[in-house]
Amino acid sequence: xxxxxxxxxxxxxxxxFELKSASLPVVALLxxxxxxxxxxxxxxxxxxxxxxFFDNDPVLIDxxxxxxxxxxxxxxxxxxxxxxxxxIPVAVRGGSAVQTxxxxxxxxxxxxxxxxxxxAAPAAPSVEIRExxxxxxxxxxxxxxxTVLIDKPLRSGQQVYARGADLIVTTAVNFGAEVIADGNVHxxxxxxxxxxxxARGDVQARIFTQCLExxxxxxxxxxxxxxxxFPKEVASRPAQIRLEGERLVxxxxxxx
Length: 256
Known about the structure:
Largest sheet: 11 strands, mixed
CATH architecture of the largest domain: 3 Solenoid
Distance between the termini: 77 Å
């Protein structure tokens, strides 16, 4: 007997696909003006020296700040600029009915308004990376782990937080970047940004680096900035940072 026309096809007794909801990280580009020429110019100037800042990241264009502006938005031109920066514009949100229709005509989908933030579940070890560039924010989360490993250089404006875990970074933490862990922080490369260990008060936590050039060091809330030169025995050399009572101790990392 022939199968009914609308009957689902099965593979080994199972449906060949499933439809599930999913949450994906995106870059949110908040427009402050409908002058897309100005926006495109500002984006080009911001990333002219960082052509690989993005890596095919999906982009959501947030229109909430210009919702009441009657001026037309050149979505086609804006999409072209964003694609040139190695991003993938996928949707808009927060716009007026007219803005939304023009966005659809340019090939963008319409995302719902942001849902209310719910109370977080009890903390589990995780890592969170945040990048904030003008009105662009990226949030990425990695699976829970007792030790979090980062093997890509951290640029200015990026933040890594190893929640409930130690953090190991095998590449440079550049000026303006920030590495945070509830446990220890290990940087097997130059540490030029900010490093915070024992973020939740662990006084036994330590910071280790192969090259100390940090902007700021902190263990369990006791901190020191790099505005004052580090002692020559640790400056630009392997070092460890720990607490001794209420005092932050910076000492050479002994070779074995």
